[in-house]
Specification:
This protein is an alpha+beta fold. Helix content is 49%, strand content 17%. The protein has a 3-stranded antiparallel β-sheet with strand order 1-3-2.
Length: 65
């Protein structure tokens, strides 16, 4: 019997974004505060959509060209 792999997340926690982008916690919150990185809260938990991280990276790549 094979098991299906777990579904990929739709939203990251702040520490996951920190690890993915290799940024500090304060830098991630600075990006959120400055609206460069979209996020939402669910209760007290802050979440960042996977697409928002991709858009941020794409924007940074375009800026560097």
């Amino acid at each position: 019997m094979t098991t299906a792999p777990p579904p990929s997340p739709e939203a990251f926690k702040v520490p996951e974004v920190m690890a993915a982008l290799r940024l500090s916690r304060s830098k991630v919150y600075d990006l959120i505060r400055s609206k460069q990185l979209e996020s939402f809260t669910s209760g007290r938990a802050r979440r960042i959509p996977v697409d928002a991280v991709r858009q941020y990276m794409q924007h940074r790549i375009e800026e560097s060209d």
